[in-house]
Design a protein that fits this description.
The complex is a heterodimer of chains A (342) and B (537). Chain A is of the alpha+beta class and 342 residues long. Chain A has 11 helices and 6 strands. A 4-stranded antiparallel β-sheet of chain A has the order 3-4-2-5. A two-stranded parallel sheet of chain A has the order 1-6. The longest helix of chain A is centred in the C-terminal third of the chain and has 33 residues. The two termini of chain B are 19 Å apart. Chain B has a 6-stranded mixed β-sheet. A 4-stranded antiparallel β-sheet of chain B has the order 7-8-2-18. In chain B, strands 3-4-6-5 form a 4-stranded antiparallel β-sheet. In chain B, strand 13 and strand 14 form a beta hairpin. With 537 residues, chain B is of the alpha+beta class. The chains are: A alpha+beta (342), B alpha+beta (537). Chains A and B meet through helix 1, helix 5, strand 5, helix 6 and helix 8 of A and strand 18, helix 11, helix 12, helix 13 and helix 14 of B.
Chain lengths: 342, 537
């Protein structure tokens, strides 16, 4: 058999083929019953999640304070969407880009602090030109000057220029949108559940966003329109999780009139735990694929989502959104003894 | 829950099939698709970030429109002053702030002056005609001074007209470039969004859109030399100093303010070559009134110089050697061939009523777009394979059912996107990949519920039935919250981000459908066929 064609394939194609082959083998083994179905969580788990509320609330409070402090001291790496300026993505035609030389070339133009950064491959460079004083026209001219200074060895792959007013509007729209979304979801939950649940989900929500913003500040991820998209998606998915647990809590509240609240919350979380973990695994798998192969353009987007959905979202639903119901007065007056309704 | 009447089953399958079928035009050769009926041709549009192109947000200079309005009002007032001998039409009429001020000669009846000046104010046209308002307010400021102020609705109306006109001219200019499917939309009061996919040279588009292309023919004031006038700061009131173009070494010219003929009088403009020295030129042709005016002026001014002014820059200032009667002429000005071609294009399309600025630009080269498609595809393949394996490893046969549902789900997303002629962007692809991840969540919810019901001691069929029933409310609740987030994102986002919101939102709708009806149908038929003693979960 001639295997010469294998040499012509690139690494990612080979990886894809390997994954598909492994997938087929696993599928056949599972379907023929050779290996049993996987379970991450044993079916009768009775883990005492509620015990951790005395730790999780202080930890979350501390983390939130750290995130807010980071936001004010470290700041966000605000992208041009929200502060104006020009972003150029260029590719060198011959050999890797010499960032030092390029910096020297654009440094003398007097256009302010121009940042250069390798982007994905050694040939690709991201150039950020700060907002130019004066009109939008100055912004366009600055980009032309920088491109001219970089010489003929480069190919312009992308240009984004925003004036001060448009970027200001985008920021306002983004923030208003974020708040509108939280409000709309709050109203929906209020209709579907009691107000304590809506409020609990809301607190969990804000907690997610605060921590994610802290992450963005720490990792200096570009804060732009796609970040707002990431935040909104995190919101949606984190709520998705919270709602699943809340649904179960509501169901158990109706079915068992006398179980103490902590016990009831523990049961709800344990019963939905398998689902929570499996769903997060599938979402992480797809996010991982996007992170590894989706290209640099959506890198910060997926990284933020990975942090927000997988790390924070899950933790919040289990350790914040559920126990907070106790403090909000759900199930007040339940007896301490465990007696099930027949 | 597990009983489907044959009609209902057929309806579910048909819905899935038909919606998926709408995705077909995206995967079939373009030529084949063109032979299909129009309604079947709808397809997904690749976003500018995937196919390359320019997204430009233009702003019409409302201040310039206002200034223009004031200047034409000034000319009107000057005419009234002259015709009715109310005062000095040149020195007596000035623009101050948002108004035109007219000072009348002493001895003129103030009442007469007011009546005559009021003639300038015209009734509003268009939608505001019914209100009976006039477009200018005329006030007697006392001491022989009259103040004429355009009303706010009149200015707003003027800006609106300017934006409409600009859109038409931009359309003509872009169509001359011969590109496919440009989108030109009005946004807000004074903005225009232009999206042109697949451009090789976005710089040219920017230059074409950014040029006002206001062409004027004016007489050169030869009484004083321009340099002297500039130095002595004694510029005659009816004249102004303009700079020549770079080709003219930025030489200064003293020109009369009044334009004799303007670009609106042109019917055609074509690039060509001067027969004498083979230099690139632009040949133009006047319409009837333009030709008449031009003939008259050139007859009266033989031997004098006139200037061809483009956007307040003198391109050339030739001497009138002989009257030009045939209504055509040429502009020479050290053009390159490209320069002459572009100018001819701009003149054909007409001048913008006001200057425009590019307030937002997002341009992606074709190379980057192709790379992004490649990466998006790769990520989708990996993501899908991983999820498929995961589902089979955890849920076996039911995992395969879920995978079929997810495959149909993705097909339906493409079908709906095609039906809506929606735009697919790189974040949009991410949205689809995420949907694959989250779509199985609905199945996971159902399956975990079935497992629980089995553990609670129900028979397999009862457990499956209860699993679907109980999971429905949860699936709806959890998906509606995400859908709200997607809807808000759609509303506030632009371009790529909006593409993400679209696929995320559509993905949620199709997910609820496939997870809840399609999976249930498959499971129901499987139960009827196998009569299982245990649930293989």
């Amino acid at each position: 058999m001639n295997l010469a064609f294998l040499a012509s394939l690139d690494a990612t194609t080979i990886a894809l083929i390997v994954v598909v082959v492994v997938a087929l083998i696993v599928s056949v083994l599972v379907l023929t019953g050779t290996i049993p179905h996987l379970h991450v969580v044993p079916p009768d788990t009775t883990f005492d999640f509620m015990r951790f509320r005395h730790i999780s609330f202080p930890i979350s409070a501390a983390l939130s304070i750290v995130a807010i402090t980071l936001f004010f001291t470290h700041g966000l790496n605000v992208g041009i969407d929200f502060k104006g300026g020009t972003l150029l993505e260029v590719r060198t035609k011959s050999g890797p880009a010499d960032l030092g030389k390029m910096r020297a070339a654009v440094g003398t133009l007097g256009l302010g602090d121009i940042q250069l950064q390798e982007f994905g491959t050694p040939n690709d460079v991201l150039v950020r030109i700060p907002l130019q004083p004066g009109s939008e026209k100055a912004q366009q001219e600055a980009a032309d000057k920088v491109l001219a200074a970089l010489g003929s060895d480069i190919e312009k792959r992308r240009q984004e220029s925003l004036g001060q007013r448009v970027s200001g509007e985008l920021l306002a729209y983004g923030l208003i949108g974020l708040m509108l979304a939280i409000l709309a979801i709050l109203v929906y939950l209020w209709f579907r559940f009691e107000w304590q649940f809506a409020l609990g989900a809301m607190i969990a929500n804000v907690h997610d966003i605060v921590l994610t913003i802290g992450f963005m500040s720490l990792a200096q991820v570009d804060f732009d329109l796609t970040s707002i998209a990431a935040l909104l998606t995190i919101l949606g998915y984190s709520l998705n999780d919270t709602v699943v647990i809340y649904d179960r809590i509501r169901e158990l509240l109706r079915r068992y009139k006398k179980i103490p609240m902590t016990e009831l919350l523990n049961r709800s979380i344990n019963q939905t735990l398998s689902r929570s973990i499996n769903t997060h695994l599938t979402v992480s798998l797809t996010l991982l694929a996007l992170l590894l192969f989706g290209g640099h353009a959506i890198h910060s987007f997926t990284a933020t989502m990975m942090f927000g959905v997988v790390l924070v979202g899950t933790y919040t639903s289990v350790f914040i959104a559920s126990p907070i119901l106790i403090y909000l007065g759900v199930g007040l007056g339940r007896e301490a003894s465990v007696t099930e309704k027949s | 829950m597990l009983y489907f009447s044959p009609w209902k089953a057929l309806a579910v399958l048909l819905t899935a099939l038909v919606v998926c079928a709408f995705a077909a035009p995206n995967f079939v050769n373009e030529k084949v698709v063109q032979s299909w009926p129009k309604w079947a041709q709808r397809h997904v549009v690749l976003g500018l970030d995937l196919q390359g192109g320019s997204h430009l947000l233009l702003e019409v200079d409302a201040k310039a429109v206002k200034k223009d309005k004031l200047e034409s009002l000034q000319q009107e007032v000057q005419r009234v002053m002259r015709e009715n001998r109310l005062g000095n039409p040149v020195q007596g009429v000035t623009i101050r702030g948002d108004s035109v001020e007219a000072r009348i000669r002493s001895g003129v009846d103030p009442q007469l002056a007011l009546t005559k000046l009021r003639e300038v104010a015209k009734p509003m046209t268009g939608l505001l005609a019914a209100t009976g308002q006039r477009d200018t307010e005329v006030v007697d400021a006392g001491g022989g001074l009259y103040r004429l102020t355009p009303t706010q609705p009149a200015i707003v109306e003027r800006v609106r007209q300017a934006v409409e006109q600009t859109i038409q001219i931009i359309e003509r200019r872009i169509n001359e470039l011969g590109t496919v499917e440009p989108t030109i939309q009005r946004q807000g009061i004074d903005r225009i969004l232009v999206q042109v996919p697949g451009l090789d040279d976005p710089e040219k588009l920017k230059k074409l859109l950014g040029t006002t292309a206001k062409l004027e023919f004016r007489m050169v004031n030869e009484a004083v030399s321009a340099d002297q006038a500039a130095q002595a700061k004694s510029i005659p009131a009816d004249s102004e100093i303009l700079k020549g173009s770079k080709a003219e070494n930025n030489q200064l010219y003293l020109l009369e303010k009044r334009s004799l003929v303007s670009g609106t009088d042109l019917t055609d403009a074509q690039p060509g070559f001067d027969q004498r020295n083979n230099e690139p030129i632009v040949q133009f042709r006047f319409n009837n009134s333009g030709a008449r005016k031009f003939a008259q002026i050139t007859q009266e001014n033989v031997g004098k110089r006139f200037a061809i002014v483009l956007d307040n820059e003198v391109i050339s200032a030739p001497q009138i050697r002989e009257p030009i009667l045939q209504g055509s002429g040429q502009i020479s000005g050290n053009f390159t061939v490209q320069g002459a071609t572009d100018l001819a294009l701009l003149l054909r399309a007409g001048a913008l009523p006001a200057p425009i600025t590019i307030v937002e630009e997002r341009t992606v080269g074709p190379g980057l777009g192709a790379d992004s498609i490649q990466k998006g595809k790769l990520a989708s393949y990996f993501g899908s394979v991983l999820v498929v394996v995961f589902m089979i490893a955890f849920y076996g046969l039911f995992g395969i059912f879920a995978n079929i549902a997810v495959a149909v789900n993705v097909g339906m997303i493409f079908g709906v996107l095609s039906l809506l002629n929606a735009t697919l962007t790189l974040p949009g692809i991410a949205g689809i990949v995420l949907t694959v991840g989250i779509a199985v969540d609905a199945n996971v919810l159902i399956y975990e519920r079935i497992r629980e019901e089995v553990r609670a001691g129900r028979t397999p069929i009862a457990a499956i039935d209860a699993g679907f029933t109980r999971a429905l409310a949860t699936i709806l609740d959890s998906n509606i919250t995400t859908f709200i987030a997607a809807a808000v994102l759609f509303y506030i986002g632009t371009g790529p981000v909006r593409g993400f919101a679209v696929t995320l939102g559509i993905g949620i709708l199709t997910t609820v459908f496939t997870a809840f009806t399609l999976t249930r149908l498959i499971v129901a038929y499987w139960v009827r066929w196998r009569r299982p003693k245990t649930v293989p979960l």
